């Protein structure tokens, strides 16, 4: 199998390089034409709409895995054009190019397509109502892919973290080493999901093939708040020696931590469809965190 991986330097892209390798030849692309390790790869910008068809034509993969995205949630409020280009128009054009050549497409989306007013885990067909530009642009990307007719799988995930890249875990470890006290919101609930898990599940799904195109939810089991996640990060980090002492983490409300973009208060995702269809069992968020930090000890 020949796989074209877009966004190979992102958190998920980085892990996909590892998990997809056993499936066949992986052609990695980044915006700079360099992997973070300094190795040359294909240069590709998903916002350059005219370049998409040429890349697909030249590489002619069996599957495209798109891990490239505009993910700056607050900044997106002021950069809607850029967010929509990378998250909506680019994926739409990509999907059309794949559809025309019979190439499968795996794409990632977000819990931020929901408004967070739900009271039970969101299912794939629950109504979407993004609260900000990032979520709107990701939803528009989903819709463009579906409209293209490509054989696709859109994996909606959430609260992605890992030891690599920019994410909440790394922010907490950095800030926790510098400060004695932190304030973290306790009234937004979701499912922290490590990038390695998303990459491993993607490989499992591709091994089995896309029988029924559509959206699937992919997050860890259970739920917590950002405050609960921060507390668990510090428990683990102190236990495994990554931090020598534990900062105090004050539980605050969203109103106490104003941000440019509004986030959903509740964005737990129901993953039963994915698990049943591909015989996948997902770890709970706490053990996934332990496993992630064990890689650092
Ligand atoms: N992070 C999260 O918490 C969540 C992420 N997701 C989704 O999962 C997917 C992977 O996200 P994640 O790995 O966390 O994201 P990252 O922000 O870690 O990585 C995104 C990558 O996309 C690249 N990129 C940005 N714009 C473009 C562009 N125009 N053309 C080509 N590449 C571009 C970036 O490259 P560069 O380094 O050059 O900027 C970066 O390497 C995305 O679809 C995201 O929306 C879903 C839910 C939660
Ligand atoms: C750093 C920090 C954040 N927070 C709050 C702000 C916010 O409400 C919440 C999460 O903060 P962040 O800005 O790190 O996370 P955010 O960028 O909102 O993360 C989102 O990214 C996109 C890409 C997604 O798709 C989502 O699933 C989600 O993971 O924690 C604190 O309360 N205290 C802190 O010290």
UniProtKB/TrEMBL annotation:
Keywords linked to the UniProt accession: NADP, Oxidoreductase
Top-level taxon of origin: Bacteria
InterPro entries assigned: dTDP_dehydrorham_reduct, NAD(P)-bd_dom_sf, RmlD-like-bd
Keyword NADP: yes
Catalytic activity: dTDP-beta-L-rhamnose + NADP(+) = dTDP-4-dehydro-beta-L-rhamnose + NADPH + H(+)
Cofactor(s) needed for function: Mg(2+)
Biological pathway: Carbohydrate biosynthesis; dTDP-L-rhamnose biosynthesis
Cofactor note: Binds 1 Mg(2+) ion per monomer.
Pfam family for this entry, one: RmlD_sub_bind
One MF annotation (Gene Ontology) recorded for this entry: dTDP-4-dehydrorhamnose reductase activity
Family: Belongs to the dTDP-4-dehydrorhamnose reductase family.
Protein name listed in UniProt: dTDP-4-dehydrorhamnose reductase
């Amino acid at each position: 199998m020949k796989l074209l991986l877009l966004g190979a330097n992102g958190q998920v892209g980085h892990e996909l390089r590892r998990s997809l390798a056993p499936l066949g030849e992986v052609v990695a692309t980044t915006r700079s034409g360099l992997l973070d390790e300094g190795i040359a790869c294909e240069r590709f910008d998903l916002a350059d709409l005219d370049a998409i068809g040429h890349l697909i034509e030249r590489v002619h993969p069996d599957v495209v895995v798109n891990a490239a995205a505009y993910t700056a949630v607050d900044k997106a409020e002021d950069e809607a054009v850029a967010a929509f280009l990378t998250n909506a128009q680019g994926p739409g054009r990509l999907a059309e190019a794949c559809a025309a050549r019979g190439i499968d497409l795996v794409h990632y989306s977000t819990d931020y397509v929901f408004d967070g007013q739900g009271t039970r885990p969101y299912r794939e067909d629950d109504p979407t109502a993004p609260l900000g530009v990032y979520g709107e642009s990701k939803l528009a990307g989903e819709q463009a892919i579906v409209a293209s007719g490509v054989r696709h799988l859109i994996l909606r995930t959430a609260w992605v973290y890992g030891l690599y890249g920019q994410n909440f875990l790394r922010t907490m470890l950095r800030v926790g080493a510098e400060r004695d006290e932190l304030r973290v919101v306790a009234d937004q609930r979701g499912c922290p999901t490590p990038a390695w898990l998303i990459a491993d599940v993607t490989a499992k799904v591709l091994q089995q093939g896309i029988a029924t195109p559509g959206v699937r939810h992919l997050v860890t089991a259970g739920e917590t708040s950002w405050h609960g996640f921060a507390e668990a990060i510090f428990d683990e980090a102190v236990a495994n020696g990554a931090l020598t002492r534990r900062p105090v983490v004050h539980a605050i409300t969203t109103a106490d931590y104003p941000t440019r973009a509004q986030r959903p208060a509740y964005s737990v995702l129901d993953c039963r469809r994915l698990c049943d269809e591909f015989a996948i069992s997902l770890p709970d968020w706490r053990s996934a965190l332990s496993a992630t930090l064990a890689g650092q000890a």
